[in-house]
Amino acid sequence: MKTINSLGIILALSMLVVMVALTGCVSEDDHEHDDEHDHSVEIEGKDMRSLSVQEVADLWEIDSEVLLSKIITEFDMKESYTVDVVLDDMREEYKFSPAQIKDMAEDIKHPDIQIQNE
């Protein structure tokens, strides 16, 4: 009987180790802080950085000028930008995260829904 109980404990511990190992396989960059929020558009931050403000706005089906204005205001940006600027180029002035842009796009698309930040 002790052998069966020991095998059960060993099996349970082995499964726990595998589960912990699997949850650690995703890099932090892949999620940034997206795990905390549901967005109407699913896109990785690393992919989003190569998009223009216009392309981001098109994904969210929002006005690109409104998004651009919100980004400039939120991060107190001093350079002159158009909707054709790529997010990575804007990040040279201020290192915002793509997740912050996602939150802004969601705010514009759904102004009546507040996204909870930590």
Give the gist of this structure:
The chain contains 7 helices and no strands. The chain is mainly α and 118 residues long. The radius of gyration is 21 Å and the shape is extended.
Description:
It is a single chain. With 118 residues, the protein is mainly alpha-helical. It has one domain. The protein has seven helices and no strands. The relative contact order is 0.16. About 18% of the residues have low confidence.
H/E element sequence: HHHHHHH
Oligomer: single chain
- Tell me the number of structural domains: 1
- Cα-to-Cα separation, first versus last residue: 49 Å
Extract low-pLDDT stretches: 16-36
Q: pLDDT average, as an integer? A: 79
Q: What portion of the residues fall into strands of 2 or more residues? A: under 5%
The residue fraction in helices comes out at 55-70%
Radius of gyration: 21 Å
Number of helices in the DSSP assignment: 7
Number of strands: 0
The profile of the biggest β sheet is: none
Structural class: mainly alpha
Morphology: extended
Any key phrases for this structure?
single chain, 118 residues, mainly alpha, 7 helices, 0% strand
Q: What layout of secondary structure does this protein have?
A:
Blueprint: H1 2-23, H2 28-31, H3 45-48, H4 53-60, H5 64-74, H6 87-90, H7 98-109
Helix pairs in contact: 4-5, 5-7
